[in-house]
Amino acid sequence: MKKSLLLIPLIIFSCKKEPAIASVPDKDSTVVTEMPDSAVKADSAALRKKDSIINNAPATKEVLRKGVMRSVKDGQIIRTADASQLPFTLGEEFKNDGQELILKLTNYDQPHLKAKISTKEKDFNIRFNQIKLPNGDYDGPFSRDITYDIPGKGEVWLIIGKSNMASGNTKGHFTVNVE
User: pTM of the predicted model, to two decimals?
Assistant: First the structure.
């Protein structure tokens, strides 16, 4: 009886077949596999969803096609756009406390600038902290609306972040409309 119990695992183990290993040809070859159509559609849907989170303004996708650059470094979001694209609306999101957005408008040649921050978030602590003018001077702080006479031509920066004079949530979605 004991001998038969020892033989059972041995028989089971010996009956298992190892998969055959195919030999690799000596020639270089490339294997191309296609993704199923459903996987391609899922990737596209995921990209659209991601864009809608970061860029939630309807006009943003059109602006992005024209070349609005975006980079993030140390909690600072930098967006660069050519002023010839004005007016436009950009959607953005602060995901961490203390983040700020610098919107750089290159080749700005208008005498006035008008911009507005909009959000659906409750108790969202956000404002235009500063404006950097083409001559290098800074001015600010401002509220969520800014109308400013721009002396000269060149690059104008709108710096958006939390107000140190107020309390409230510093994370959430918002749009910036620039004219």
Answer: 0.63
